[in-house]
Every structure is written in structure tokens, then in C-alpha cells.
Amino acid sequence: MKLTLRVWRQKNADAPGAMSTYEVDGISRDMSFLEMLDTLNEELILEGDDPVAFDHDCREGICGACSLVINGDAHGPERTTTCQLHMRSFEDGDTIDIEPWRASAFPVVKDLVVDRSAFDRIIQAGGYISAPTGTAPEAHATPVPKPDADFAFEHAECIGCGACVAACPNGSAMLFTSAKINHLNVLPQGAPERETRVLDMVDRMDSEGFGGCTLTGECATACPKGIPLPSISAMNKEWLRAVRKVRR
Amino acid sequence: MTRTLWDSSVGKKTVMAVSGLIMLLYLVVHMIGNLKIFFGSGEFNHYAHWLRTMGEPFLHYEWALWIVRVVLVAAVVLHATSAYQLSRRDIRARPASYVHRKPRAGYATRTMRWGGIILALFIVWHILDLTTGTVHPGGFQSGHPYQNVIDTFSTWYGNTIYIVAMLALGLHVQHGFWSAAQTLGAGNAARDRALKALANALALVLTLGFISVPVAVMTGVVS
């Protein structure tokens, strides 16, 4: 396959960026999107140019490191992560636009790499449980009803890639935050911090400069792990419950 | 608790949802009242007068109406203020847009902000037209709402402003009701279809109910 790529190039956080056009040839339909970018970078290095910086790690769709907006879609046209997107989703001769996640809470570090540490700080605010250290407790000691376990697992699937923020017209992190809150709040292990967790994490989310939810549903459409839109409603319910219960 | 509500984006959305639902409840009642115009001037004017004597003798003349007005003004102010502040936050959170733009979300979702501004301007005109009579075409007669309504809808601009505003209202309610339900935590996978259907039904019934009055005046059904 022969492709035309229009890639966002930006030297550093302070430099202005712009789209640069590159041609790549000899791309196999079985290559992943990131392997295609590797091919481009090898050519750029041979020509003495600066290779395109992009985030990647496991390349198995489970770590949440990759982050590209491809033709206006977070993670591209398929409902998966960029590393699990294959070139067979494109046609020979296509022009592909590649941009970084766009949100004021995710400043561009270089080219396609953005700083997603705002997510880490949201997790630090309450994405934990208090458990005594030592030997692991017997797994059956704390019964969890099946629907609750399913609900927790559905939300535990969130890999924190930030596609929800990238897709949201308001740069809102509500789908991410709701996944992390719902995952722990429904389980008995998460019960001691149930109220402070939701209040502190929403508070942190706001102070990181993420926008609010206007229920456009773009986040749930973009999510490679299928975190559903009603998760946000479940988080709102937890928040309203916590506001009534906790006096601060 | 009040500070937590107002300072948090989730809390401010709650204020918006509750104030929106109060206005929506009022609109349903208002629309049903409007439809009394189809039963003739006697019944319509009598109903309008009853709105002033509502709650008597416990409440004094027009007290109930003023209570409703005060609640509505509070709802409008809270709704608009939280909408403005939340919108500012949303726009700040996404300073740079994508080079490759795709059409996003539904029409109702995308027109919430402009639709809200149109509705606010409409409310000002509507009150000056049919409550105070300041900008009313022809002589405004206090206590004769049937004739006043016919006067307004006998002008081309009265019909245009009203019908455009009611279409905007339908779109606003369609996305607004569903959003309010989500904000208040009523949404879940099993219930979302029903909530969306209810939002669509409310939007459709309100728009058709309100628009039926100017259409009836234009076609001579009400004269």
C-alpha cells in the first residue's frame, strides 16, 4: 500500500505545531498502525530527519499507552486501540490525518505525545482501597453478588488511554473517572472509601481542567474497552449520594 | 453542601437538571392550559382568570401566580448561570480543535447552547407581548387573553418568532430531559431506551401542542 500521511509535528510543549505531509510506500495490509508509523520513522531517520514521536508500549491493546486521533477518530476507525488497528482498515492511496489527543488537561509534549499525568492524579485522589498488608485474604471470605462483580469488571476494563477525553467536544474525563469510581464503589472492598472516593476524584477531575459532560456520547463511542455511557450516570448517582451523606 | 454543589461540575449540572425539570413541568401545564383556546373565548378567559384566583381563600388574589413566577425566575436564573459557567469550563478544556473534523453528535445536542439563548430571548418577547402588553400588536386588553392571543398570531412576525422558538424548545427538551435524567443518576443500561423515548415524546408533544395555537389562528380555526 502507498499512503499519504498528514502528521501533527510539534518540537516541544511551547513550540507551535503544524501538520506535515509524508508519503509512505510498501505498507502491508497486515501491519498494525504503529508498525506503519515505525516504517515512516525508519525512513525519516535514514533521511536524517527527526522521527515522529508517539506513545506506545505493550502493543497488545491492554496498557493504554497508545493515543492517536486518526482521521478525527480517537484510536481510528475500528473500536480498538491504535496498536490493534491494522492497515487493512484503510485503502491503498488513502490520505490519513494523525493528530494528538486534544485537551487542555493533556498538553502536547512532542508531536503526537501528550502528558496524561492528570489521569494519574485523579487515580491518586481516590482510586485505591485500604487493605491491610500481609498474606492475601481468602478469596471466598468476602462474597460479591454476581451482578456487582460483572458491573465492577466491566468498569475495571478501562485502561486509562484517554480516548474519552480526546473524543469529547468538552475535553471531559467523566467516562474515565466514572469507570474508576464505579469499579471500586460497587465492591465490598471499596466500601470504606465509597463517599470520599467519588467526592475527591470528581474534585480532582475538575481541578485538572477537564470539561463537563453534555451527554454527546462521543466518549463511549470512542472507548476501545466499551465502557458504556450510563457509567457517567452511575457516577453522578454516587456523587449525589455522597454529598448527602458526608459533611465536609 | 451548597458550596460543594455549586463548586463541582457534577453539582452544577445537578442545579441545571433540577431547574430544567422545574421549567419543563411548568411548560407541560402551560401547554395544556393553552389548548383551552380550542374551547372558545369564554372557557379560555375563565381559565386565565382562575390562574389569578388559584389557592383562594388561603392565598390572596394572584399570590399563587406570583409564587409560580418567583420559582420560575429563580429556575431561569440558576439554569442560565450554570449553563454559562459550565460552557466556559467546557470551551477552556478543549482550546485546540482537530484539523480533521467530523460531524459529531445529534442536531439537538449541538444546538443546546444557541437554542438556550434563543429561548431566553423568546421568553423576554413573550412576556412583553402577552403579559405586560408592552410590544403587543393592536391594543392589549388586560383580562382578555383570547383576543390578545389572536392579535399576536395575526401578525407574520408573531407567528414566525413563536414557531421558531417552539422548534428550538423541542430540540432543547429532547436532549435536555435525557441529560437531566443522566445527571440525576437515573440512567442505566436497562432504562436508557425508555428515557430517550420519553424525552422524544415530551419534545414532540410540547412542540406540537404549543404550535397548534398559532396554526389554528392562521387557518381560522380559532378566531
Residues in β-strands, percent of chain A: 5-15%
Number of strand segments of chain B: 0
Q: What is the class of the largest domain in chain A in the CATH system? A: Mainly Alpha
* Largest beta sheet: strand ordering of chain A: 2-1-5-3-4
- The CATH superfamily name of the largest domain in chain A is Alpha-helical ferredoxin
CATH class of chain B: Mainly Alpha
Distance N to C terminus of chain B: 53 Å
Could you tell me the mean pLDDT of chain B? 94
Describe the structure concisely for a colleague.
The complex is a heterodimer of chains A (248) and B (223). Chain A has 248 residues and is α+β, with helices and mostly antiparallel strands. Chain A has helices at residues 33-46, 117-126, 146-156, 163-167, 174-185, 194-207, 218-222, 230-245, and strands at 3-9, 18-24, 69-70, 73-74, 95-99, 108-110, 113-114.
Write the layout of secondary structure elements.
The complex is a heterodimer of chains A (about 250) and B (about 220).
Chain A (H helix, E strand, L loop, with lengths): L2 E7 L8 E7 L8 H14 L22 E2 L2 E2 L20 E5 L8 E3 L2 E2 L2 H10 L19 H11 L6 H5 L6 H12 L8 H14 L10 H5 L7 H16 L3
Parallel strand pairs in A: 1-5
Antiparallel strand pairs in A: 1-2, 3-4, 3-5, 6-7
Helix pairs in contact in A: 2-5, 2-6, 3-5, 5-6, 5-8, 6-8
Chain B lengths: L1 H6 L1 H26 L6 H13 L9 H31 L13 H4 L1 H19 L14 H8 L3 H28 L8 H28 L4
Helix pairs in contact in B: 2-4, 2-8, 2-9, 6-8, 8-9
Explain this structure.
The complex is a heterodimer of chains A (about 250) and B (about 220). By secondary structure, chain A is α+β, with helices and mostly antiparallel strands. Chain A has 2 domains: about 5-110, Roll (Ubiquitin-like (UB roll)); about 115-245, Fumarate Reductase Iron-sulfur Protein, Chain B, domain 2. Chain A has helices spanning about 35-45, 115-125, 145-155, 165, 175-185, 195-205, 220, 230-245; strands spanning about 5-10, 20-25, 70, 75, 95-100, 110, 115. In chain A, the strands form 2 sheets. In chain A, strands 2-1-5-3-4 form a 5-stranded mixed sheet. In chain A, strand 6 and strand 7 form a beta hairpin. Chain A is elongated, with a radius of gyration of 20 Å. The relative contact order of chain A is 0.14. Chain B has a single domain (about 1-90, about 105-220), classed as 3 helical TM bundles of succinate and fumarate reductases. In chain B, helix 2 packs across helix 4, helix 2 (about 10-35) packs across helix 8 and helix 8 (about 155-185) runs antiparallel to helix 9 (about 190-220). Chain B has 9 helices and no strands. Chain B is mostly helical. The mean pLDDT of chain B is about 95. At the A-B interface, helix 6 and helix 8 of A face helix 1, helix 2, helix 4 and helix 8 of B.
